[in-house]
Each structure stands twice: as structure tokens, then as C-alpha cells.
């Protein structure tokens, strides 16, 4: 796993890098950690950023500050998880504006890093897991978060994804099982929805970011709502 | 004479049910003296209205509704329009039940016994009122009575009606007397039970309010302590600054400008750390979060935060305190236990506004699985904990929001969306 640490203070970089290495050793992960001491320099390094899977960005830096750097990188690589690291709590709100995945405080890094990495790695694995399906259109590779929802139509199931629609001869129950614990919810006997794309559930109707409305049967409603709320709580 | 006594007894039953109905939908006015005799005032006035003015015929129902409406104005905090509406609904139900009872009893021996007929219909009326009360959402405190208790309360009136019916259809005079005796006894038990139920609810409600006040006071005290501590820390800092300034002076005097510069840099940074606080653009949320955050820091509980701009949330100050402190206190309490056992505890906290909805989620480690049923904790810690969450639920319900609790062997999750 490629990790970048961007911090202008060498002590802090070393501290974080050591903590990450310890964590990797403990959990048997291989980390390739690259350190940068300025935001400008990091923004130039396109190939490094493309290969990067996780970025730890210090906020308070000389020259281009961490928030600006993070914002610029997020514009180009919106899916790259960025963890803002700082000594000052006041920046928490700005971190939110940058859409940072996490916000860590330098004074309790040692306590929080393990928990944070557990979460992030689970999230990265979930999002980066490539799913291969034999569609009617041919074999296609998809990321879980490409899929918006799957709908049963006659004997086929149709994947509505960000890359287009694909049809597959497979039962929705089997698909539901395959996508277990990946953020999908069975909203209806013939609908499996990725919860990231839900904007609201009310009055027995689920609305998606695409504007699509899916009816949620009374018998499932409470359970669907519950799963969605727990998902929102962890997102 | 017997006739008048029987009329008054029937009227008493009717008033009992009527008052249950009104209490369900209208807020009672304060005043112990006035409320003490409320039941008898209603009985007396309605009895008078019932027996006088027979010559008006059908128009009498309007008279009775008007009398009820004016009486309500004296005893409830309502406008005349509301009072009039509820009086009409109440009266319509009364008449309907009377009518159904007469219809059912037609042809049987029941017809001649007007008093028994009245007893049946009035008891049925009270049962209906209890049902309305059970399923009405306007008075939340009835949620304090569990489904099983309601079932028990309903049992007695249902048996009473069964007793009456058996009496009407039994041919034997002796048996009829036995049933009559039983039924009248049951009616008395009904009334005692209802009184008891009312008391239980009022008592529970008082406890709930007391706990809420106590919690607010505790929060206020914690806030003062927090401020005092900051002040104390500041005093200590001022003392340090005196020493630090003299160090800088010495450094400059001796020509060590670089050292002096790096020393001042370190000082400014440490001040920034000292002054740092969680900022959500909402003063009350900030106050509660920072207070809890500092308490977590002191207890060496780590926090992973995800907070957003909460400028637009429109909860009352007190509600914010109830929501945040109850859930965070629970998380801190559990984390402390985990910390003792494992030496490590992390609380995840998410608090942000998304699409004009407030999402508040707390995740904390637990020492053992907490049993959860219908999104409430089956508490082992006594009522206090349960009431804390009940208060949270009350806030959530007020804004038509949702709350979900979940727990496995390692982690407890609470999510509130408003």
C-alpha cells in the first residue's frame, strides 16, 4: 500500500512514519511510505499521487498550507482518502470543507492511529475491491461504488452503474449475498441499492442521488431505514 | 330516591370516561384546589343538564355540548373552538355507544333494566376512551406504561362487560343478583385501577422531569468547573510567562537572537494548542463538545472526530445539551470501563449537517454486549441511564427524527438523524 506523508516538520514526519510502520508490522501489511515536506512539491508529483492510496497531510505548513494542498489534490483525485493531521483542533471544521476522510490530532496520534488505520483500510479495501461480472454485454470489472443500484427485470438483473447499465443472469439473492457488508441494502424484493447513493428514505419511498425513486414495502421499511442510519453513522 | 342515586352513578361513570378523553387531548390548568373537585363539578353540572330541559327535545344535546365546552374552558388550557370540538367528539361517541347498546339489547330482558343498560354502555365508553388514550400520540407520557401493563388494565373492564352480558341473558333471578353483585364490584375495581394508573403515570412523569432538571444542573455545574479550570490554567500560564519573558530578555541581552527567536516560536505554538477547541460554528454545540472532549482527554480516552458546520441547526439550547451529553456521557462511561480492562479506548464521533439534516453518531467500545430491544436499552444500570436515553428519544420524536441503537460484543453504536 502506497502512503504519502506531507509535513514540513521532520520530527512529526518521522513520528507518524514510525507509527505507521509499527502498525503495518503488527497487522502484517506492507506499506511503502513516501515523505514530502512541502505542498507545492507534492502537487507536482502526479505519478506519486496517482499510485498513492492514502495521504496524511499536515495542515499548518510553511508556504502552501495543508488545507490548500489537500483541496487541490482532492479536486484531481476525489477518491483518494486524505487524513488531516494537526496540532490544532480549530481546523476540524476546515477539514470538513476539504472532505477529509479523517482528522487526527498530533497530541494523541499514538492512541488513535490504529483505530483510524483499521477503519481506513477497511474502507479502501471496500472501495478498491474490483468485482468481475459476466454480463450479457461481456465480462466487465466494476468497483463496488460504481454500482448505484441493481433491479430485477423479468429473468435478468440490471446493474445501473456510473459506467452505464449492464444485464446479468443471476438471482438478486445471490448478488445480495456477494455484496454483503459492502454498504448495499435490499430496499425491495427486486431492488438492491448502494447506500452511498441514497439521499433520503421517507413515506415508504427511497430517493437516490440520481432522482430515481424506489418504493420500500411496509414490511421492510423499518429494517431498511435502520440499516441506512447505521451506514450514515459510520460513513 | 333510588332513581336519582342510580342516575348519579351512571353519570359518574360517564364523566370518568369523558375526563379521560379530555385529559388525553387537552392540557390541564394548574391549581390543586380547583382540580381536586373537578370530577364532582363535572358530575353535578352534567347531571343537572341531563335531567333538566327535557322539553327542548333533540336540541338538548347542543345544550350539553355547550355546557361541557364551557366547563372545559375552566379546567383546561384551550380555546373555546378546541373545547367545543372535543366536546362534540366526546358526546357523539357517548350517544353512539348508548345507541349500539340499546340496539343490541332490543328484545331481551335488558330492555326493562335501564340502569344495567346504562352501566354496560358507560363501561364500554370508558374502555373506548382507554383505547384512544393508549394509541393517542399527543400525550407521550403514556409510553411509560408497557404493553403488558395496558393489557392488565384492560382486562378488568372487559370482564365487567362480560359479567353484565351474562347477567342479562341468565334466566335465573338468583344468578342475576350474583352477576349484578359481581359486576358492580368490578366497576368499583375498574375505577380504583384507573385512579392507580393515573397516579403511576403522574409519578413517572414527575420522576422524569426531576431527572431532567438534575441533569441540567449537573451540566451547568460541569460548565462552571470547566471555566474555573481554564482560569486556573491561565493563572499558571501567566506565572510561566513571567519566567519565559525574562529568559527571552536574557537571551537577547547576551546576543543569542536566533535562540530567542526559536524560543518565541515554540511559545506561540504552545499557546495555539492551549487555545484550540472544536469549532462547529454553533456556540452551544461547541460548549458541550469541548467540555466532553476535555473530559475524554483527562481520562485518556482517544477521540476520532468528524464534525461539520452546524450553523443551521435549529434545536433549542436545552435539547442540544440533552442530545449530546446523554449519548457522549454513556460513551465516556463505557470507554472508561474498557480502558481499565484493555488500556485503550477510542470514541468515534460524527456530527454534521447533510441536506439540512443533522447526523449525530457515536461509536464506543464496550466491555460486554448491551441488550437492545426496539432501539432502547434493556438497562441493568437502573432507571437513570434509561431515562437519559428516553430524554434523547423525546427530543428526536419532537423533531420527527429517528434514532437507532445497535451493539455487538465490542462496539456500541448510536445514530440520530433529525
Automatic annotation (TrEMBL), chain A:
User: Can you give the residue ranges of the Response regulatory domain?
Assistant: 2-121
Protein's organism: Blautia caecimuris
Q: Which InterPro entries match?
A: CheY-like_superfamily, LytR-like, LytTR_DNA-bd_dom, Sig_transdc_resp-reg_receiver
**What protein name does the entry list?**
Stage 0 sporulation protein A homolog
**The organism sits in which domain of life?**
Bacteria
- Domain HTH LytTR-type, first and last residues per copy: 131-230
Which GO MF terms does the UniProt record name? DNA binding
Q: Which residues carry this modification: 4-aspartylphosphate?
A: 58
Which PROSITE patterns is this protein grouped with? HTH_LYTTR (PS50930), RESPONSE_REGULATORY (PS50110)
Look up keyword tRNA-binding and say if it applies: no
Residue ranges annotated as coiled coil are none
Phosphoprotein among keywords = yes
Q: What does this gene product do? A: May play the central regulatory role in sporulation. It may be an element of the effector pathway responsible for the activation of sporulation genes in response to nutritional stress. Spo0A may act in concert with spo0H (a sigma factor) to control the expression of some genes that are critical to the sporulation process.
Per UniProt, the keywords (alphabetical) are: DNA-binding, Phosphoprotein
TrEMBL record, chain B:
Q: Under what name is this protein listed? A: Sensor histidine kinase NatK-like C-terminal domain-containing protein
Domain of life from the UniProt record: Bacteria
Keyword Transmembrane helix listed? The answer is: yes
Q: Which residues form a coiled coil?
A: 214-244
InterPro entries named in the record: HATPase_C_sf, NatK-like_C
Origin species, per record, is Blautia caecimuris
UniProt cross-references to Pfam families, sorted A to Z = HATPase_c_5 (PF14501)
Q: Which UniProt keywords apply?
A: Coiled coil, Membrane, Transmembrane, Transmembrane helix
So where does this one cross the membrane?
39-71, 83-102, 114-132, 153-169, 175-193
Positions of the Sensor histidine kinase NatK-like C-terminal domain: 319-415
What SUPFAM superfamilies does the record tag this protein with?
Answer: ATPase domain of HSP90 chaperone/DNA topoisomerase II/histidine kinase (SSF55874)
Amino acid at each position: 500500500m502506497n502512503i504519502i506523508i506531507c509535513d514540513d516538520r521532520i520530527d512529526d514526519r518521522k513520528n507518524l512514519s514510525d507509527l505507521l510502520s509499527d502498525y503495518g508490522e503488527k497487522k502484517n501489511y506492507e506499506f511503502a511510505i513516501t515523505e514530502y515536506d512541502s505542498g507545492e512539491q507534492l502537487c507536482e508529483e502526479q505519478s506519486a499521487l496517482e499510485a498513492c492510496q492514502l495521504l496524511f497531510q499536515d495542515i499548518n505548513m510553511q508556504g502552501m498550507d495543508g488545507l490548500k494542498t489537500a483541496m487541490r489534490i482532492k479536486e484531481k483525485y476525489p477518491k483518494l482518502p486524505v487524513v488531516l493531521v494537526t496540532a490544532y483542533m480549530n481546523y476540524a471544521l476546515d477539514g470538513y470543507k476539504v472532505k477529509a476522510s479523517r482528522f487526527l490530532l498530533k497530541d494523541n496520534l499514538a492512541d488513535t492511529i490504529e483505530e483510524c488505520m483499521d477503519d481506513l483500510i477497511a474502507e479502501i479495501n471496500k472501495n478498491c475491491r474490483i468485482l468481475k461480472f459476466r454480463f450479457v454485454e461481456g465480462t466487465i470489472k466494476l468497483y463496488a461504488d460504481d454500482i448505484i443500484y441493481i433491479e430485477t427485470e423479468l429473468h435478468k438483473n440490471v446493474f445501473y452503474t456510473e459506467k452505464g447499465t449492464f444485464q446479468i443472469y443471476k438471482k438478486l439473492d445471490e448478488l445480495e449475498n456477494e455484496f454483503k457488508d459492502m454498504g448495499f441494502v435490499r430496499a425491495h424484493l427486486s431492488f438492491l441499492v448502494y447506500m452511498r447513493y441514497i439521499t433520503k428514505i421517507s413515506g415508504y419511498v427511497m430517493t437516490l442521488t440520481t432522482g430515481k425513486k424506489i418504493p420500500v414495502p411496509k414490511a421492510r421499511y423499518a429494517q431498511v431505514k435502520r440499516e441506512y442510519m447505521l451506514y450514515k453513522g459510520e460513513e | 330516591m333510588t332513581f336519582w342515586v342510580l342516575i348519579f352513578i351512571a353519570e359518574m361513570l360517564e364523566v370518568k370516561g369523558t375526563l379521560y378523553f379530555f385529559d388525553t387531548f387537552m392540557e390541564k390548568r394548574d391549581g390543586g384546589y380547583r382540580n381536586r373537585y373537578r370530577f364532582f363539578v363535572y358530575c353535578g353540572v352534567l347531571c343537572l343538564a341531563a335531567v333538566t330541559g327535557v322539553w327542548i327535545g333533540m336540541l338538548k344535546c347542543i345544550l350539553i355540548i355547550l355546557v361541557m365546552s364551557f366547563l372545559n374552558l375552566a379546567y383546561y388550557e384551550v380555546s373555546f373552538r378546541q373545547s367545543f370540538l372535543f366536546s362534540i367528539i366526546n358526546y357523539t361517541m357517548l350517544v353512539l355507544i348508548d345507541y349500539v347498546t340499546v340496539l343490541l339489547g332490543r328484545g331481551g330482558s335488558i330492555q326493562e333494566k335501564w340502569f344495567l343498560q346504562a352501566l354496560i354502555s358507560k363501561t364500554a365508553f370508558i374502555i373506548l376512551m382507554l383505547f384512544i388514550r393508549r394509541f393517542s400520540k399527543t400525550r407521550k407520557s403514556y409510553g411509560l406504561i408497557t404493553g403488558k401493563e395496558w393489557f392488565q388494565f384492560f382486562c378488568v373492564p372487559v370482564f365487567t362487560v362480560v359479567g353484565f352480558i351474562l347477567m342479562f341473558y341468565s334466566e335465573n333471578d338468583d344468578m342475576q343478583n350474583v352477576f349484578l353483585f359481581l359486576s358492580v364490584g368490578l366497576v368499583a375495581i375498574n375505577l380504583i385501577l384507573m385512579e392507580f394508573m393515573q397516579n403511576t403515570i403522574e409519578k413517572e412523569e414527575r420522576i422524569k422531569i426531576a431527572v431532567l432538571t438534575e441533569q441540567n444542573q449537573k451540566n451547568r455545574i460541569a460548565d462552571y468547573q470547566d471555566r474555573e479550570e481554564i482560569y486556573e490554567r491561565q493563572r499558571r500560564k501567566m506565572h510561566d510567562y513571567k519566567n519565559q519573558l525574562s529568559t527571552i530578555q536574557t537571551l537577547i541581552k547576551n546576543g543569542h537572537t536566533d535562540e530567542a527567536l526559536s524560543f518565541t516560536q515554540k511559545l506561540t505554538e504552545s499557546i495555539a494548542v492551549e487555545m484550540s477547541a472544536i469549532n462547529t460554528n454553533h456556540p452551544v454545540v461547541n460548549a458541550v463538545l469541548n467540555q466532553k472532549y476535555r473530559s475524554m482527554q483527562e481520562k485518556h480516552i482517544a477521540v476520532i472526530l468528524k464534525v461539520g458546520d452546524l450553523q443551521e441547526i435549529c434545536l433549542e439550547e436545552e435539547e442540544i445539551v440533552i442530545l449530546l451529553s446523554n449519548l457522549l456521557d454513556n460513551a465516556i462511561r463505557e470507554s472508561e470501563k474498557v480502558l481499565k480492562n484493555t488500556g485503550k479506548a477510542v470514541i468515534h464521533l460524527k456530527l454534521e449537517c447533510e441536506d439540512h439534516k443533522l447526523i449525530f453518531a457515536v461509536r464506543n467500545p464496550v466491555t460486554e454486549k448491551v441488550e437492545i430491544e426496539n432501539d432502547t436499552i434493556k438497562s441493568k444500570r437502573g432507571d437513570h441511564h434509561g431515562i437519559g436515553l428516553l430524554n434523547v428519544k423525546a427530543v428526536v420524536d419532537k423533531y420527527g427524527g429517528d434514532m437507532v441503537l445497535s451493539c455487538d460484543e465490542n462496539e456500541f453504536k448510536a445514530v440520530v438523524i433529525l
